[in-house]
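Standup notes
- DV: blocked on the single-chain target, sequence here:
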Amino acid sequence: MLKDDPVTHAQAIARLRESGCVFAEEEAAVLVEAAGGNDETLAALVERRATGEPLEQVAGYADFCGVRVRLRPGVFVPRVRSELLVRIAADETAEETTVVDLCCGSGALGLAVLHQNQQKAITLHSADVDPTAVATARDNLTTPVYQGDLFDALPDVLRGRIDVLIANVPYVATDHIPLLPAEARDHEPRTALDGGPDGLDVFRRITAAAPQWLTPGGVLLSEITEAQLGPATEAVHRAGLDADSIYDDDLEARVIRGRRTR
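- DV (later): unblocked, structure below
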């Protein structure tokens, strides 16, 4: 099947099965919807998926935590396990809260926090170093999205005024990058995945600077692995923040929380 040949739903399923897609029927249904009734468009989308591009990037969206997140090719796809990060961030919000989403990618986490706090006055700011991520986040958000390296991207007026700091940093150890699924390894930006030798390089940078940006009582929230819990906790304590962690069995997700208490 050539990518510009018309294709039926049944042919789409067959092509996806042939390429190794385990959930060919479900994925074909997503691509049929994304194609909007155009068979040539469907053929092109099926070929992109069959050659390994993530389904969400091909379809142009991901359903995450109750919101539909628009995605561009080459941007990090939000993971189901990050629902824990959203849930904790939402629980930490008060009636009026300033939330910052660093390493925001598509803006999915901030968007989901806004969705879960529609009755509250949430002021959201987001930032990422990657221009494609910034453009995608601006597709999804009407709130400010900045491009730059971590806190350097933020306006100085936010210093000492952040109540909830979400930092879904890259936390895969460099040596583990080749072990990632090809969808992530080949189609998502390295800057969204590679966290250095132990996966905590970016986390340590954010943690060290966080006390200057958090309000008293404000929290830093970040996803980590079980193996990273000890060194991540040490980094939080070194920054003068209290630390605890939350684990969700169903999501197989762990979040470390650092709180400024003084």
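- Follow-up: The mean pLDDT is 92.
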